[in-house]
Amino acid sequence: MSRYPELLALSLFLACPVARSQGAGVPAGSAADPSRAGLPPDPRAAFGRPVVLGPDDKPAFDDPPAGFATRRDNIPHGRLEMVDYDSKTVETRRRMQVYTPPGYSTAKRYPVLYLLHGIGGDEAEWERYATPDVLLDNLIADGRAVPMIIVMPNGRAQKNDRPVGDLFAAAPAFATFERDLLDDVIPAIESRYSVQADREHRALAGLSMGGGQTLNIGLTHLETFAWLGGFSSAPNTRPPAELVPDPEKAKRLLKLMWLSCGNRDGLINFSQGMHTYLKEKGVPHVWHVDGNGHDAAHWRNALYHFAQKIFRPSTVE
Ligand code: FER
């Protein structure tokens, strides 16, 4: 998100209309956490909004084992490459980062995970936060994940897509990205890589703004994606009843609906709202609340678990 997370957390809080309108004016880490009295605001408890936890808001999984994101020399490695594509949506040439698994071969066809970044990020953000290539190399070597392609596009669909200036001013471009993803990114990937081009072999997941994009785009395009993961989804998330107007259809088509958030994340209410709605409507989903904030630890851990569940027989009840 930034090389200076404290400053970014503070500036996001100051710029955040939702936080300000709810009067959540307590800087993160002060009143909410007496153990931090006298310390600078805790960047992990971003946005300074009060977190109210309910009985369902607990971990569904243990934290990953030590070393899960450490590169191992004695296993096969995949490849990470930066790829250009023509975007009709933005009318420019754009970039995305693509991971191909160890032994990638055009003699096989692979499922694809599209992985979306946050408001301060770009196509390189996931790599900075979570090294998805290392994570997947390890999981695949241990037989815990299916060999897959991971596509990390730039979710800010506008001509200048660098995370500069007022980050919130680009919020509309994160909505425009729906067309860029469906009309430009996916066709470019499917024409260049050896992929299984159907809904059951496409997953969409993202962190924060990218989590909101995942829910907004994925739940309204179940003909395109069967596996969805919203990590710490941001206020760009549309109301659950708009995204899932037909719960029976969602039940029939979703192979995995993953929602997760840290229990110190001031944006948790957006994920809680989606969990409550899906629970009420009987739509099976994962609801995983761990001990992190709005931070890379949550996103790395979420990807570790999510990547093991996709493109396999569905196990969620
Ligand atoms: C907001 C607060 C946070 C918001 C977006 C975010 C669109 C996104 C944060 C992130 O991506 O980390 O009010 O409004």
Strand-helix topology:
Elements: H1 5-15, H2 17-21, E1 79-87, E2 92-100, E3 112-116, H3 125-130, H4 132-141, E4 149-152, H5 171-192, E5 202-207, H6 209-219, E6 227-231, H7 240-243, H8 247-253, E7 256-262, H9 268-280, E8 286-290, H10 296-309
Helix pairs in contact: 4-10, 5-6
Bound molecules: 3-(4-hydroxy-3-methoxyphenyl)-2-propenoic acid.
List its traits.
317 residues, alpha/beta, Rossmann fold, eight-stranded mixed β-sheet, 8 strands, 16% strand, disordered N terminus, binds 3-(4-hydroxy-3-methoxyphenyl)-2-propenoic acid
Task: Summarize the model shown.
This protein has helices at 5-15, 17-21, 125-130, 132-141, 171-192, 209-219, 240-243, 247-253, 268-280, 296-309, and strands at residues 79-87, 92-100, 112-116, 149-152, 202-207, 227-231, 256-262, 286-290. The protein is an alpha/beta fold.
Structure explained in plain terms:
It is a single chain. With 317 residues, the chain is of the alpha/beta class. It has a single domain, classed as Rossmann fold (3-Layer(aba) Sandwich), CATH 3.40.50.1820. 32% of the residues lie in helices and 16% in strands. The protein contains ten helices and eight strands. An eight-stranded mixed sheet has the order 1-2-4-3-5-6-7-8, sandwiched between helices. The protein is globular. The structure holds 3-(4-hydroxy-3-methoxyphenyl)-2-propenoic acid (FER). Residues 1, 12, 16-18, 118-119, 171, 208-209, 234-236 line the site of 3-(4-hydroxy-3-methoxyphenyl)-2-propenoic acid. 3-(4-hydroxy-3-methoxyphenyl)-2-propenoic acid (FER) binds next to helix 2.
